[in-house]
Design a protein that fits this description.
The protein is of the alpha+beta class. It has 16 helices and 30 strands. Strand 29 and strand 30 form a beta hairpin.
Length: 606
């Protein structure tokens, strides 16, 4: 489609201004067809950036290697440029929007010389859904176009819904590597140096400007940038929720169905839970989404959620048939792999894939690599943040409702983190405000591998949203409280805190996790209907000792340990929240949360 054919006047004008600023050699409006996707892959193969994998083993799959400076989200270069610094809050990087736009316009000047500008209209959520939002990303990266084809709904159908005057989020993106006449990439991943990378969000004007990175969430602007940082602001202003949550469908042996969302910090098994295979006979778990949930209220007063994404952008290392069989099945075809290792027969390999490296490999930097188990300091063959981009529809456990434009009704929210002590296996909030309190103190214990923080301390990540909230977290907590006050609490999802990571005194996990977590989900399922054995405690509602059927190897004493209220531990937890966590949010921390903190402390001292 040509630029002149765009029917939306505002969109056409915006693109024309970008063309004048960035001076690409050509402009293409993406149509979202499979032919377009194939052409993007062909362009990258010709540029030496895409390696075709073994088409017998992995049909339609390709491998990319990024620059070592361009391998992950760059939090230090990610900005919330609200008009007031106070609106961005203490947990976001802030630059004055006028100043930041001036700097970035300087970088954008002629940044696409020698390249094609691709205009990507995309829908986050099923096209036409009342919960969905439309974005338009301008990019000079065929890699971004191909990945967006998988991660969002792209193309002409989106423009049809947008019409002549619909709302869209404008997204600038450039890799920041213009080409001189006759110059080519020649197999070198194009990006700008780290100090020139910017991932910028302008909440008031609903804009995203990204420069210098071609990787992941820095470049696929529908993902964290729109779906969380900008959407969280839209949700606050419009009265809904945009959350860093999985969505799963669970069916009990009697055929009753519930939908549950869950928010967990990184490395806490969110994707594994979203694609869980239950060990509990008669129970079934299906996937609606593995990373993000947008939730709006239906006419019946219940919250309905969509997965705004169309694909999985998953971390490869540690993914195997035991930890996540459904993910492994999902990535066997039509998948883009980035920064994993390559075997001699053009297959992929990574640390934690479940078997030793098959002979000599080519590592993520393109260098020969042979596994040496005796060398504990050997650099990994796959980058720790190496990824797969795969269509969600390929997941064997995908729920039939995953693209329902109405969304699915949510019965429960789960929060959790890696906590070897104190936090029980599962705990139900006494009320909505108690649940918001639980979400506000989410955290994981820091290991010795994190050199900047003392091992054993808790790194807090409220609602697993700390890097992704587009405004002050104190105001974010207020928004959650307002949602509870403005709606019938009986119809709101019940809130639970889970912890699969309790350890015994020898440092061994007490609970086996993975598929065995279905035993906890079964109790949560019943509690949504007021059933299931439960006991009231100072910290919330816990299962009775016989309410959860223990898996093999977990004895009666283990269950008591997993479900006990650690009074001393909780007093220390409350003190840490009061002294170290809540003060970060200053006078924007809602008073209701301090009241809740006082109430729990009083119950613990009773």
């Amino acid at each position: 489609m040509k630029l002149s054919e765009l029917k939306h006047g505002g969109l056409k004008k915006w693109v024309e201004e970008a063309v004048a600023l960035m001076t690409p050699d050509a402009v293409e409006v993406c149509d979202g067809t499979s032919a377009e996707y194939d052409r993007m892959i062909a362009l990258m193969k010709d540029a030496g950036l895409a390696t075709e994998l073994n088409q017998k083993k992995l049909p339609g799959c390709f491998l990319f290697r990024s620059d070592p400076s361009d391998v992950a989200r760059v939090e230090a270069r990610t900005y919330i440029a609200s008009k007031s610094k106070d609106d961005a809050g203490p947990t976001n990087n802030w630059i004055d929007p006028a100043e930041l736009k001036k700097t970035m316009r300087g970088l954008y000047g002629a940044c696409m010389k020698g390249r094609t500008m691709f205009v990507i209209p995309y829908s986050m959520g099923p096209i036409g859904s009342e919960i969905a939002k439309i974005g338009v990303e301008i990019t000079d990266s065929p890699y971004v176009v191909a990945n967006m084809h998988i991660m969002a709904r792209v193309g002409t159908k989106v423009l049809d819904v947008l019409g002549a005057d619909g709302f869209f989020v404008p997204c600038y993106h450039s890799i920041g590597k213009p080409l001189a006449a006759g110059e080519k990439d020649n197999g070198v991943w194009p990006c700008a140096p780290l100090d020139k990378k910017y991932i910028s969000h302008f909440p008031e004007t609903r804009e995203i400007w990204s420069y210098g990175s071609g990787y992941g969430g820095n470049a696929l602007l529908g993902k964290k940038c729109l779906a969380l940082r900008i959407a969280s602001v839209l949700a606050r202003d419009e009265g809904w929720l945009a959350e860093h949550m999985l969505i799963l469908k669970i069916t009990n042996p009697q055929g009753a169905v519930k939908y549950i969302t869950g928010a967990f910090p990184s490395a806490c098994g969110k994707t594994n839970l979203a694609m869980l295979i239950p060990t509990l006979p008669g129970w079934k778990v299906e996937t609606v989404g593995d990373d993000i949930a947008w939730m709006k209220f239906g006419a019946d007063g219940r919250l309905y959620a969509i997965n705004p994404e169309a694909g999985f952008f998953g971390v490869a290392p540690g993914t195997n048939n035991e930890s996540n069989h459904n993910a492994m099945e999902s990535i066997k075809k039509n998948t883009i792999y980035t920064n994993v290792a390559l075997t001699a027969d053009k297959d992929v390999w990574w640390e934690g894939i479940g078997y030793d490296a098959p002979g000599s490999l080519t590592d993520w930097k393109g260098k020969p690599w042979t596994q040496d188990k005796a060398n504990k300091n050997q650099e990994p063959a796959a980058h720790p943040n190496s990824r797969f981009t795969a269509p969600a529809k390929q997941c064997p456990a995908i729920a039939k409702e995953w693209e329902d434009p109405k969304g699915v009704p949510i019965s429960a929210f789960l929060f959790g983190g890696r906590r070897p002590k104190t936090i029980p296996l599962v705990n139900q909030a006494k009320s909505w405000i108690h649940g918001v309190f639980m979400g506000s103190i989410v955290g994981s214990e820091v290991t010795a591998a994190a050199l900047d923080v003392q091992a054993g301390t808790i790194r807090r990540d409220p609602f697993a949203m700390l890097p992704f909230c587009g405004y002050h977290m104190g105001d974010y907590f207020k928004h959650w409280i307002k949602i509870g006050k403005g709606h019938d609490e009986a119809k709101l999802p019940k809130i639970f805190f889970v912890n699969w990571f309790r350890k015994d005194d020898a440092g061994k996990f007490i609970w086996p996790g993975y598929g065995e977590n279905s035993r906890v989900l079964a109790w949560i399922f019943d509690r949504c209907d007021g059933k299931g054995g439960a006991v009231e405690t100072p910290i919330g509602t816990l299962p009775t000792p016989d309410a959860i059927i223990p898996p093999a190897g977990v004895g009666e004493q283990d269950m008591k340990e997993l479900l006990k209220v650690d009074i001393a531990g909780w007093k220390a937890e409350i003190k840490d929240v009061r002294d170290n966590h809540y003060p970060k949010f200053g006078d924007k921390l809602p008073k209701e949360l301090y009241v809740e903190l006082d109430s729990i402390e009083k119950r613990l001292n009773a």
